[in-house]
Design a protein that fits this description.
Strand 2, helix 2 and strand 3 form a beta-alpha-beta unit. This protein is an alpha/beta fold and about 325 residues long. The protein has 12 helices and 11 strands. The protein has a single domain, classed as Inosine-uridine Nucleoside N-ribohydrolase, Chain A (Alpha-Beta Complex). The radius of gyration is 18 Å and the shape is globular.
Length: about 325
């Protein structure tokens, strides 16, 4: 059965891999892409998303620009862990793909999300892999969204370690109020894929060469983007291996077709919105005797071999 989804992105190298996976997998129907400020400003997340879709021949997928700032905080916080376009930046302001020919859709992200969920009640999975600003804005416009969307699959958060701060992962840290709103909204199913899982599904330089050898646009693009990620992670020393890197967002799209690619457990998760040192932390109640009802299926493990095989299989396809 083909699964319908909307991908909400802040493209970004790992978002780009997720977009290509969702756009090319035969069991996924990518209805649209919504963009949000995050890895780079909104104008670039939108431009990068268009570049990716044009490059792989899926210009038919519309890109809807969304929020240019967090829902509460003034200004958008620039990432603190690296300087933009430095050798530690695994994204770059502009992806190394040709400029897009396609244009952004005139309908904004929040309006599109609400409209699509209402037109296809119970059929559309939301997959936000950037800051959750657009999803929170859509909830503010239409609280009934929680009754229309069967599952939200989020790349974000961390339990063992953060990446933007010692306590917080970037996507949640960048708009903690939005994240708190989404996690507490009451969606029937929320699957949270944090750093704990994505760092167990590394893509290596050998995997990159396999992707490049496919000879397809997606294989070429994925190889180029992941190669940059590996180099940046090696400089920063942030991955378990110097010859490999996580591709966080693509693990969410892989889960849509092969749920066993991650190992989850039901957990109650809240977001810290006030702590000076802990803002953006996903607080996971892992106490064995906890009576707090779980609100998320949280991934703590991942199958790296299956993940890499899925990438190779899907990126061998042409649109």
């Amino acid at each position: 059965m083909v699964r319908k989804l909307v991908l909400d992105v802040d493209t970004g190298s790992d978002d780009a891999v997720a977009i290509m996976f969702a756009a090319l997998h035969p069991d996924l129907d990518l209805l649209g892409v919504t963009t949000v400020n995050g890895n780079v400003p909104l104008v670039h997340t939108t431009d990068n998303s268009l570049r990716v879709l044009d490059f792989i021949g899926r210009s038919d997928v519309a890109v809807h620009p969304g929020l240019a700032r967090p829902i509460v905080r003034h200004g958008f916080p620039a990432p603190k862990r690296f300087s933009r376009d430095s050798d530690r930046d695994m994204h770059g302001t502009e992806l190394p793909l040709p400029p897009p020919v396609s244009k952004p859709h005139e309908v904004g992200a929040a309006e599109y999300l609400v409209r699509t969920a209402r037109e296809l009640p119970g059929e559309v999975t939301l997959v936000p892999v950037g800051p959750l600003s657009n999803i929170a804005a859509a909830l503010a416009l239409a609280p009934d969204l929680v009754e229309l969307v069967p599952e939200v699959v989020i790349m974000g958060g961390a339990h063992h370690f953060g990446n933007e701060t010692p306590a917080a992962e970037f996507n949640i840290w960048a708009d903690p109020e939005a994240a708190d709103m989404v996690l507490s909204a009451g969606f029937p199913k929320v699957t949270l894929v944090p750093l704990d899982a994505t760092h167990k599904a590394l893509v290596s330089t050998a995997d990159v060469e396999r992707l490049r050898a496919l000879g397809t646009p997606a294989g070429e693009a994925a190889a180029k983007l992941v190669e940059k990620r590996i180099a940046a992670y090696a400089v920063a020393g942030e991955a378990a291996r110097p010859d490999a890197a996580p591709v966080h967002d693509a693990l969410c799209t892989a889960y849509l077709v092969r749920p066993e690619v991650i190992g989850t457990r039901p957990v109650h998760v809240t977001v810290e919105t006030r702590g000076d040192r802990t803002v953006g932390r996903t607080v996971m109640d892992l106490r064995s005797g906890s009576t707090t009802p779980p609100n998320c299926d949280v991934a703590f493990d991942a199958d790296a071999a299956l993940f890499n095989q899925l990438l190779l299989t899907v990126f061998a396809r042409r649109a």
